[in-house]
Amino acid sequence: MTASALGRVIGRPVAGRRRAAEPCELCGEPLPGEHAHLLEERKDLVLCACRACALLFEQGEAGPGRFRLVPDRRLRLTGPSPSELGVPVGLAFFVRRSDGTVVACYPSPVGATRWEVDAAAWERLAGRYAELESMRPAVEAFLVAIVRGMDERWLVPIDDCHRLVALVRQEWTGMSGGPRLWERIATFFAELDKAGSNR
Fold first, then answer.
1. Of the residues 93, 109, 120, 195, which has the fewest C-beta atoms closer than 10 A?
2. Which one Pfam family would you cite for this protein (predicted)?
């Protein structure tokens, strides 16, 4: 991803759908105003979609398993502890794949580092929290930030996680990320809180 493309990802607001004047990445139709996202599972890419393409995939009528409509549900959670999943870092997100396995990802200066979560540990945690049990495969994530005084636990669309990864990748400096990065991450969660409270 080029520096300019990375900047566009970071600059998008957390709240709502994207508002950039750009073409649908499936059919090429212009996208004025708000528009949806689709996840291309094979490449783990988030694509902009016009209303017609979004509706097509929402109904599951084309290419099942390849493209999935990204929902816009954002829920603040209280209680799920990522420590139960053996997470060695304070900023991470968890995605349940279509095959039922769960992958933990943490944003880093080189992108998202991934590892597979112990299936039994995930089952125990999800079994106690209906929100985690209801996570839609591939397109929603359990996002946590328990670091530097933050205690954020959210169920979010996967595009929010992609945006956070891009932010960390671009802003990281030194050994610990630098003060500007952590200010930007705090702003990210403040915007997420506003987006969640407006739903």
1. 120
2. DUF5947
